[in-house]
Amino acid sequence: MTGGATSDGSRAFHLVTLALVISIAALIGLNYSVMKGALDHTTPLALAALRTSVGGPVLLAFALLRRERFPRTRDQWLAIWWISLTITTISSGTLVLGVSRVSAGLAGMLSATMPLFTAVIAVWVLRERPNRIGALGIGVGFVGASVLALPAFDSGNTLAGVGFLLIATVMWAIGGVLNKRLPAALEVSPVMLVAMQIMMSCVCLHLAVPVFEDWSDTDFVPGLLWPLVYAGVPALAVSFALFATVLRRAPAIQASVAAYLTPVFGVTFGWLIRDERFGVLELLGGALVVIGVLTLSFSGMRRSPPPAPAESPEVRTAAV
Fold first, then answer.
1. Does some domain include residue 203?
2. CB contact burial 202-238 (16+ within 10 A = b; e otherwise)
3. At 2, which helix (H) or strand (E)?
4. How many domains does the chain have?
5. What is the pLDDT of residue 52?
6. CA angle, corner 305, sides to 301 and 309, nearest 5?
């Protein structure tokens, strides 16, 4: 009975985690189409800054309504700063810069490589290692994401856009690992942690806009405001808070599989909203992505044991 109850509990745990991952992917996948529309009225860094201006205060107000406490120690503030710098400052800024320069399909493929970078970093920093089934899931998911984005190569893309998106992907992976690597970050609730990191990014990105762009290029019209609300609240505040929650529930490699599902939703919403094409390749790629996500999500993960301390000469002599 105990074993059966434990098995049921573990299955429910995995299902909840998978539901959170799918929610994150859906929110971010829709955001590609939303940002394309918003960029008709503003510049990339300005959009990145404005979405933090909307999402940060909303999430902070929600955290305060829940009576969550602000970070209290220097280590907690430093941990949030490093996570903010990677995920919601550099990654968010370069993401919008990349999306403005490449097609949505190629952007989706590059974002889907994030689990690969996360796996490499997690193996090195967290000693997390996927088993053979998990590694197979990573491979299948990457192949599916590549197939899904093949039609994107028919349209014009810039090398700068690809570079920006790769930087965004790597920085997201680093931030995800830092969420688990920095003990002080785990002492702060996921909602408060993300609220504070978005507020820090808000300051940094607003300072960057006058240096690299011009606020006069932004038109505050309804065509910008409604996309801004979505990009700031559901796609940034909500999805990042869910991601931080998933990181508390699962290994970093498994949490990162949301990136594999993002192209599926990105292509689907692009077809529904922006009348982008949706053909056999997208269906095949989407199926492979889903299979890869399910395989990795339900695969076992193992953590390498820490190295044994070196035995001193005195201990060896005593043993003899």
1. yes
2. bebbbebbeeebeeeebeeeeebeebbbbbbbbbbbb
3. helix 2-38
4. 1
5. 95
6. 170
**115-119, 122-126, 207-211, range with the lowest pLDDT:** 122-126
CA–CA distance, 115 with 122 (Å, rounded to integer)? 10
Q: For 204-254, how does the pLDDT look when each residue is reduced to its tens digit (9 = 90+)?
A: 999 999 999 999 999 999 889 988 999 999 988 888 888 777 777 666 666
CB atoms within 10 A of CB 183: 10
Q: What gap in Å lies between CA 205 and CA 85, rounded to an integer?
A: 10
The answer to whether residues 51 and 232 touch, using CB atoms and an 8 Å cutoff, is: yes
Q: Are 146 and 106 in contact (CB under 8 A)?
A: no
Q: Which amino acid is at 29?
A: G
Distance CA 31, CA 34 (A): 5
Query: The whole model's pTM is what?
Result: 0.72
Q: Is residue 155's pLDDT more than 90? A: no
- The answer to the question of residue 277 being in a domain is yes
Calculate mean pLDDT across residues 141-163. 69
Q: Has residue 317 been placed in a domain?
A: no
Q: Report the alpha-carbon distance of residue 170 to residue 167 in Å, rounded.
A: 5
Q: Does 50 reside within a domain? A: yes
For residue 250, what are the domain limits? Answer: 13-303
Q: What is the DSSP string of 272-307?
A: HHH-----HHHHHHHHHHHHHHHHHHTS-EEEPPPP
Task: Find tokens 């692009």 and name the residue.
Answer: 270
Q: Mean pLDDT over residues 31-59, rounded?
A: 91
